[in-house]
Amino acid sequence: MHILVMLGLVGFGAQMVDGSLGMGFGATSTTMLLAMGTTPALASATVHLTQIGTTLASGLSHWRFDNLDWAVVRRIGIPGGIGAFIGATFLSSLSTAAATPLMAGVLFILGLYILIRFTTAGVPVANLGKPLRNRFLAPLGLVAGFVNATAGGGWGPISTSTLLASGRIEPHKVVGSVGTSEFMVATSASAGFLLGLGFHGVKFSWVALMLLGGVIAAPVAAWLVRRIPARILGSAVGGLIVLLNARTLLSEHALNISPGTRGPIYLLVLLAWAAAVTHVIRLHRKQQEPDVRTRPAAPRRRR
Fold it and tell me: What are the transmembrane regions (predicted)?
């Protein structure tokens, strides 16, 4: 019973992160499924089946709150779907022994990227209004879709971060457009897994519970996207993904690090994560404080 509750919470938490940050559903939920002992291909298949529903709910919610640029959705989503289908068929052909360290390695890198980016960099908003061309969006979607299906996550970290870095579209529309276009990516990846695996072994009860949690979270996340401090959330989620996938990479199935050495490494990662989140919280609080130099002088009292 506790596993079923956990799955619902995984879906809810992953969608809250993804809907608010524009990334993280795949990386977060796939990492949790791998930690529960699911094989890489089945974990990715389960996540993408779930995302067909969560991305649809997320897209409707973002449309309701005017967080979409439909041109970007179309021009990044179609090549993203093609890349996802190719990535799903590729992952389906790998053995579990080969796929586990590969997926953990990609997820570790994605988590590290999210952690570093949101800890050290702000969100650029320059060049707003300049057009985003197909020669930029199509390769971006193709690569992000392939990585997303192969690693069980990556669409958001690659697409959202790149579009934010371009500075040519408002941050809340980047989050909404990337999340909505992921519906095409999830559908295409699921078709690829159906072709490669036939969904043999996929637990549809898991899909249903994660979907339920994600659908409940979608409108809340779409509302929060304009209000939540993205840098704090990004640092927290990035560190969590790094920590969980470090466990897989350090195991005897991957890097074969001795048990006595793993503890200090886990502690080091945990301390670095805590320091990053603390740093970002301090920066956020400092930005919220009014500048003393700009405060109006208090009127003098007459004696």
Answer: 97-116, 136-158, 204-225, 232-250, 265-283
